[in-house]
Amino acid sequence: MRKVHIHSVKAGEIIAKTIFLENGNVLLGHGVALTDRYIQRLINMGIETLYIEDKDTEDIIPEDSIRDETRKQAVDAIYSTMTGLMEKQTLQRRTSLPDLGQIFQKVFGDILSDLSSRRDILVNLCNLHTLDGYFFHHAVNVSVLAGIIGLAKGYNQQQLMELGIGALLFDIGMTQLPKELWNKKTELNEEERQRIRYHTEDGFNLLRTQYNISLLSAHCALQHHERYDGTGYPRQLKDKQIHEYAQIVAIADVFDALISPRPFRTGYSPSEATELLFAVGNSMFDLDLVKLFLQHVAVYPIASTVQLNTGHIGVVSEVNPLAVNRPIVRILREPDGSPVASPYELDLYHKDCMSITIVKSV
């Protein structure tokens, strides 16, 4: 399969990877033939890219960091919790809240089990969801990214669980905002930005009183908008004053936000997002944590379409954990855009290909 932009797909092509709704349910499953009506609906729902079946790449199968069933259950838990809190506005009514600790220990336990079973801890986020589902799928993606960094740092089971639950619930304070502000489709004005800033303290105050949720997990909600140089909020903490869990969640939050389409902009490619993260190391984030994070992110994920400096167009067939920016690429088109006589692969990490680089994702 290969990942393509929505405006490049044609009626009759077959969906190769499931597209999810905001609550984790299936919008369109793999194997469904696209129609003009389906394509227009996906565009209207904010889907920018999707995976399609293709005879030249049928053996290229991107593996998400977690199983579809694990993701569905995690998104459903986030969706149920967040929408319930938005409806009830129960910040000061602890007795009406579900046992968040018990729920999300199970949720992150399943995520951690999937991550721990992988051969490597190189993340590949290949889930697809509607624009309205961003808030819920984003929380799951942040927990996946944070879990991978926790594993890379050698955290023990307790530390991983504290980090993971904090990552799943880091934005829970957003549920205390007016619904029209929380779900606004355009850019915010200054007054609205100031109101949204309170979500960090709202989230902390909600989580710190919950049974079975660590105070350190609650600090992920409080501190995920603090910045390494002291320019963040709510307390302008800097450097080691920010708990490491919150620093990891902040990096994961920004990375996934960058690569996700939003109502007012298209998503960045993973390679563009990694460049931006590296550029703000030791200003927004601890540079050592950024470097560790980037060592475990697929800059050019499997099945993504790329253009080389030679002009050739190809699809990433395999990622090299030792050099995430130099994957194996299956060449499909000549520099003039015509199909190659027979697809072939280039290992950009091989000494004979060191002069060949990826110019951009297409």
Automatic annotation (TrEMBL):
Domain HD-GYP as annotated: residue spans: 113-309
Superkingdom as given in the UniProt entry: Bacteria
Listed name of the protein: HD-GYP domain-containing protein
Organism listed in the record: Brevibacillus ruminantium
Taxonomic classification: Bacteria, Bacillati, Bacillota, Bacilli, Bacillales
